[in-house]
Each structure stands twice: as C-alpha cells, then as structure tokens.
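Let's inspect one such protein example.
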Amino acid sequence: MTAPVSVFIVDDSAVVRQVLGQLLMSDPGIRVAGAAPDPIFALQKMQKDWPDVIILDVEMPRMDGITFLRKLMKERPTPVVICSTLTEKGADTTLQALSAGAVDIITKPKLGLRDFLQAGGPHMVQVLKAAARAKLAAVPRARPVASPEPRAAAPVAMARTTDQVVALGTSTGGTQALEAVLTRLPADCPGIVVVQHMPEKFTAAFAQRLNQLCRCEVREAVDGDRVIPGLVLIAPGGRHMQLRRSGAQYRVGVADGPPVNRHKPSVDVLFRSVANTAGRNALGIIMTGMGDDGAQGLLAMRQAGAHTIAQDQQTSVVFGMPREAIELGAAAEVLPLSDMAQAIMGSGGRRSLAS
C-alpha cells in the first residue's frame, strides 16, 4: 500500500491552518505532518518529520515566503505549493515564488475562505499529490537561440502577415518551463499563442515578467489581437483563447465559457482551434502539467497536418499532460525541454514551420 503524502502547512492565518488541516486530513491519501505560522517555526518543527510537500503562504511575519523558499531550495529542495491571496500584489509575489522553484499555486480569497477551500478540496488534494512527485531540478538554463539576422521585432502596425503559428500548452511546472523556452528565442521568432493554467490576475503579471526577460514581446492576450512574428500571446486566466482567421491574418479570440477538462483557459480549446484554423502551418507543443488537458487537441492538430511535440518525462516537472498526449498518439516527436526553442525556430534539421 502506498504511503500517504505528508504535507506541512505554513501560513500566518490560524483559520487557514485549521481549515486546510481539517480538509486534508479527510483524504486517506494525505497526512498532515504539522503546521506553523511562519517559516522559522516551520523549520524547527519539520526537522522531526520532514514533509513530502509544503503549503506556503508568501506574506508572513519574521521571514517572508520568498526568502524561505530560496533558502529551502538551496539547502533542502522540497516540493512547495504556494497558497496566495487572489490579488494583483499577491500575483506578483507568487510569480516570484514560482520562479524561485515553487511547483504550483492554490489561490485563496480574502472573504469566504472556509467555503472556498472546502469547495476546492478535491482539486487541492490532486495538486498536492502531483507536487509530491514533482522533479525540482527539471528546468535547464541554456543559452539563447541566435537569430540568423538579429533584429528588433516589428511594430504591430507594420508587421508582415505570417502563416506560421506555434501553439503551446502547459500547466504545473509550466511557468519555469515557459521561461526556459521563451527566453532562448530571438526577437523574430514565429508568432506564439500560449495557454498556461493559471488563475485570473496571475497571467497579466506573468506575461509582464516574461516580457522583461525575453527578446520577443510577451503580453496577455486581448480579444482580436493579431498573431505576428516576435509576439507571444498568453491566454488570460479565467477565459478561453482560440485562434481565428481574418483574411490573410491570424488573430485570437478571447471569451468566457465553461471550463473544459476542469480548466479555463483550456489547452484543448486552443489546440482544437489551431487545428481547424491553421492546420499544417502550425506547430503544437505540450509541456509539463498535471492531468490530460491538451492531449485530444494536440491529436486534432496532428491529424490536421501540424507537427506536434511533447516534452519528455525526464525534463517534465509533472509528466501528466505530455504522457497523455504521447499515449494517445498525438505527439509526432518527444523532446527534452532544452530542445524546444530549437524546434520552434525549425533549426537542427527539423521540419521548417513555413514548409
């Protein structure tokens, strides 16, 4: 019989510690190893019973969550799931935590906390169990892929029409993976559309952060945005994104709708629209993540003539979404994360996106 996943809760709110503890203890696959109001107390308690996963708040007294996380990843790497308030300030801080090595996010509202946590209990348990299996050293730091003729990205109004579209979907571990891929791309990379499973308000901060790190432009998508070279559009949290054709141009549609595969935005929604709209002129990539969102959509892309790639198990933080796509026959190629940027640029003898 598999041992239950041991979880330690670090949150300065006594209510959060109590409600989370009661909720997690109701699942036989979870064991609550303990709880503490701040990282200093947590470190003292965890020495006696080190957990498989830590639930960590980011704003706490004595030592903030980011400082603790960096210390933890340096001295004793342990899967960490951030428990953050759903605010713009909380989003920015949480993204710093994800960049520092946290595996996933659990959002908490300021009001109605007990009802919110109880309603989201099954998903929370799934996240914690997936985090316990996460690979913390999966994201490589590689040198950028050089452009044949480096140049600044063209302004939107003057950009040429492109028939090349890259659709990329990811979830748990995806913030680090996307950073590893996008920061290696030149300013004239193909137009890219991305679904990263992330709550509302977090995607805007995520896009802004990537835009500061990348040579290409990265921004949160707005309904009607044109897909052009040198531009990466990230689906807003809480809304679906689809690719549309407008004459000779590709644009994105951003709209509300019911969750698909329990997610909004959904990778399947994006991939299916790319299959229907771009066909063989698209490249589909599915990367690290929990669950099966995107597998069916990637298969639709492959059947429509697009080249399709799944991230390999060794470099995936959570080998859920890529595994489902591979087993379904949706991926024509399986690559490590370090090869994704080269694949996007069509170098190394691989198929050209424009062919």
Summary: The domain at 156-345 is CATH 3.40.50.180 (Rossmann fold). The CA atoms of residues 6 and 31 lie 5 Å apart.
